[in-house]
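Onboarding guide, step 5: your first structure request.
Type a short instruction followed by the sequence, for example:

Predict the 3D structure of this protein.
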Amino acid sequence: MEIRHFRYFLSVAHHGHFTRAAEQLGIAPPTLSRQIQDMEKELGVLLFQRSQREVRLTAAGEALLAEAGLAVRQFDAAQLGAQRAGRGETGHLRLGYVASAAYSGVLQQHVEEFTRALPAVDLDISEAPMAQLPAQVRDGTLDLAYVRSPMSLPEELEAIALQEEGFVLALPASSRLNELPEIRAARLGGETFILPEQISGTLEVASAGGFAPRLGQQPGSLVAVIALVSLGRGVAIVPESVVRRVQLPQVNYRPLADCAPRSWLSLLHRRFEKSPLVRRYIEQVRAQSADHTASS
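The system replies with structure tokens like these:
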């Protein structure tokens, strides 16, 4: 027997009439009658008591009714589940990110939109050191990752450029640089630089100021960077979004008068991604990025 036989049986049981059941199924009554007879022959029992007026279930038919309904529902659910997975509508997605992706609001915008469109997808979202994220995406530990570019990537990966952002100078409140009406890059030559994960801004400022930077600690998260600045351990070149999100005692944020380094958030993905679910997320991010660019 095939699943269609169960569908035929259930229709006849529901309508109590071969002709009405055949109309609902879209087949000829003799074809339906023959299919039910084939079922009865294979099972070795009568499923229906037939008369000219109506068709009634036998005891064997009553026993089959609940199980046949369950079998059809399970088959339909399995078929739908496979189709939805194939369209990238269900499954498990693992996202990694650096803190500035959350500070900027980009991470929240993308996740909110994706969850609204595909609520059945299970999202596993975690912050991680930026240096580890490319390898984790390449090796499959993560499906996607938000990083701060520019950065070198394995050849297996591509990056979708997202929101561009400038840098600011984070100063201890005790620094004499706070007394200056404007701060130029060259004035930072004698400072110790606390390093965030993305050091391109620090290097660009040092290049503009004509000095080799004195490098301090690289503690990891942006909060840890700003904490060391607040303790007077050095200055830091950090993304502008930090100003709105990380306010600690004894820290001042200042722009640089003659240097405007830039960076941008990127979404890392595998170059030849096969997962329909991951591709759905990538397509959504590309669309949102295009909409943001068009409205800017």
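Each response can be followed by summary notes, for example: The chain has a mean pLDDT of 91.
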